[in-house]
Amino acid sequence: MNQPQQPEQQPEQQPEQPHANPAIRLHYGYASDRGLRRELNEDSLVASDPVFAIADGMGGHEAGEVASSVCVSTLGNHPLLSSKPARVSAADLQEVLSEADSAIRRITDSRAGTTVSGVVMVEEMGNPYWLVFNVGDSRTYRLSEGALEQISVDHSQVQEMVDSGQITPAEAFIHPLRNVVTQALGTGPAAEADFWMLPIDEGDRMLLCSDGLSGEVDEGQIVEILTAFDSPQDATDALIQAALRTGGRDNISVIVIDASNEREKKLATDPGTDTEEVEVTTIPKPVVAAAGESEAPAAEEGQ
């Protein structure tokens, strides 16, 4: 007796993984200013897609400038961060920062250090993300739908006081110990960066800054400026001017980055557009070593 034939088992269909959206484009502006009271500018910055970072040097005459410059040069020139978007994890980026830390210690004989805060555009599961990183009290913010969110958390004495409930964030803004950092690259114990992974949404505006901006201009005014200017460079320049008008007591460095989906914009204006990638011309931004602030390692900045 013939047995009924069993249906042939079909191989299980694996869900197709989404591909990174090649139409996401980053448009950005940057600037650094010595300020009105500092002899030198010891900030350095890198704005070179997919890597954006601001480093605030500490250690006195010349040494702080060297520390911040070594930091951004390591980030801007590292082969792990050369693809667009970068295919790196937080662990990979910690390795890069550790290389910068070692180089600063070697070059400055451990006499200088630097804060650093920034973002790398990365690909995760086929989708674009912001990989935010931070050591020290430079900052990374995100403006989304008109609301400004501080992503990074300061490694500073006043932040620890806020976390423990000793003072309020408003009190921290004017506290006499607000410039005392608790972590930095190149000095003190080996720094462990904080990391955050955020999906990139259409219309995101990221703000990176040294404390020459965040220590002079309150968040309400920062939001007003970021929402008043369509051009990232115009917003950057306006933020620098606002910090100068309120005293300019420190070096001021700013990067503003916009994320936009050029393909969706094109399809919205021209429904007949096919699915080929829309080419967008952008001006490449080089590694920029602008000079930072005179800070004493693991002590009050500016000493």
Polypeptide structure, described:
Helix 1 packs antiparallel against helix 2 and helix 6 runs antiparallel to helix 7. Strands 8-5-4-3-2-11 form a six-stranded antiparallel sheet, with helices on one face. Strands 1-10-9-6-7 form a five-stranded antiparallel sheet. The chain has a single domain, classed as Phosphatase 2c, domain 1, CATH 3.60.40. With 303 residues, the chain is an alpha+beta fold.
| Shape annotation | globular
- Main-sheet strand order equals 8-5-4-3-2-11
In the CATH hierarchy, what is the class?
A: Alpha Beta
Name of the CATH superfamily: PPM-type phosphatase domain
Number of domains: 1
Q: Percentage of helical residues?
A: 25-40%
**Rg over C-alpha atoms, rounded to the nearest angstrom:** 22 Å
Approximate strand percentage: 25-35%
Give helix and strand order, one letter per element, not per position.
EEEHHEEEEHHEEHHHEHE
Low-confidence stretches: 1-20, 271-303
How many E strands? Answer: 11
How would you sum up the major sheet? 6 strands, antiparallel
What class, by secondary structure content?
Answer: alpha+beta
The number of helical runs is 8
Average of the residue pLDDT scores = 81
Could you please say which CATH topology applies here? Answer: Phosphatase 2c, domain 1
CATH architecture: 4-Layer Sandwich
Euclidean distance between termini CA atoms: 96 Å
